[in-house]
Amino acid sequence: MSLYEALTTESAVSLVKKLGLFAESETLSCQEIGDGNLNYVFHIKGTEKSVIVKQALPYAKVVGESWPLTLERADIENRALRLQGQFAPDYTPKIYYSDKNLAITMMEDLSYLEIARTGLINGEDYPLIAQHTGEFIARTLYGTSDFALGPQEKKKLQNTFCNPELCDITEGLVFTDPFFDADTNDFEEGLRPDVEKLWQDSNLKLHAAQLKRLFLTSGDALLHGDLHTGSIFASGTETKVIDPEFAFYGPFGFDIAHFTANLFMNAFSREESRRAPLYAHVVTVWDVFTAEFTRLWNENNTEAFAQTDGYLEWLLADIFEQATGFMGLEMIRRTIGLAHVKDLDSIEDEATRLEAKRQSLSMGAHFVKERARYTSADQLVAAFKEGL
Ligand SMILES: Nc1ncnc2c1ncn2[C@@H]1O[C@H](COP(=O)(O)OP(=O)(O)O)[C@@H](O)[C@H]1O
Ligand SMILES: CSC[C@H]1O[C@H](OP(=O)(O)O)[C@H](O)[C@@H]1O
């Protein structure tokens, strides 16, 4: 018999009371606030405190019951959050309770902060977001890598984060479908000539295939797996990373690539005069990631070759090159694939919107194909400013 049942606002309230998080007598309000593609999120509020209950559905919410999806993802998310909380406690929500059968995680209510994508669209700049996100990425990746854990411990941990169904979504929606006339694609008719040109670009397809192979086969570290600006809560002083249900052992460059791709897509939606803070974030996140990864490398490293001249520098350059390619893929898929970004979709004027999307597509393709040319974030920003 399945122990799973989908929560309602009423049963979510009963559950938090049964668990002793609130007194039986307390009057609570409960609202389902999930705006993501996959899950339910209940916001439960009492007089003095509040809590978030996130529940996975046995299917992808954005499509419906015709797209069944494992409930295991809630357990992956819960365990990833707890691990990320060990490496980067300042940047991770507190977890109060989880139940694998019900596919729920109860966590700290972060609604005193704002989802960064929403804030960036409304003109916020979040001066510390890149510093914090760079530290989060470096600490969580380095801490779960061979270098920190040693190969045996790392493999044991890696075995517990096999996430085939969610990886399959990324392999399809990010790495494959946008390059073919797939049913999942979703784009405006005005973009069709650009999209058809992209489908015929065999050099682009070759590079997409190479990056896909990297995603399929690399097991560098436990990734967040979906680190876009909608997975980050922020304010002027705080940053918290949520929603790691796509977590799995993958290539070092993936998370930072998704963060920078989403910064660049927000830049496309702004006037040039308001883009400077986003460019600065792209440079800062790389500077901070590099410095923090290097600090951790020198402080705690189980690898015999760690101090071999040139090894760390080679690794960081390799991460940069792969990340430049992954960044380009994220820009392409968010423009013509199944899951769009509001930054581009909410541009009201049709001609401006189509032009921003064209640029996102062509810059994305450029970063995929020419990734080996780039060795610094300043160069990425310069290329972005120059346009194609
Ligand atoms: N800890 C939290 N505190 C406050 N709101 C949250 C929290 N977690 C999620 N939310 C809200 O729910 C929305 C969807 O959450 P998310 O984890 O991204 O779900 P999904 O997995 O469906 O993408 C977020 O955009 C945010 O508005
Ligand atoms: C059918 S899932 C599509 C898309 O949604 C996920 O994002 P989120 O859960 O943050 O809404 C992920 O990016 C998937 O690729």
Automatic annotation (TrEMBL):
Pathway noted in the entry: Amino-acid biosynthesis; L-methionine biosynthesis via salvage pathway; S-methyl-5-thio-alpha-D-ribose 1-phosphate from S-methyl-5'-thioadenosine (hydrolase route): step 2/2
Keywords: Amino-acid biosynthesis, ATP-binding, Kinase, Methionine biosynthesis, Nucleotide-binding, Transferase
GO MF entries: ATP binding; S-methyl-5-thioribose kinase activity
Gene3D superfamilies referenced in this protein's UniProt entry, alphabetically: 3.90.1200.10, Phosphorylase Kinase, domain 1
GO biological process, one term: L-methionine salvage from methylthioadenosine
Binding-site residues for ATP, renumbered to this chain: N39, K54, E108, D109, L110, D243, P244, E245
Quaternary data: Homodimer.
HAMAP family documented for this protein: Salvage_MtnK
Function comment: Catalyzes the phosphorylation of methylthioribose into methylthioribose-1-phosphate.
Protein name: Methylthioribose kinase
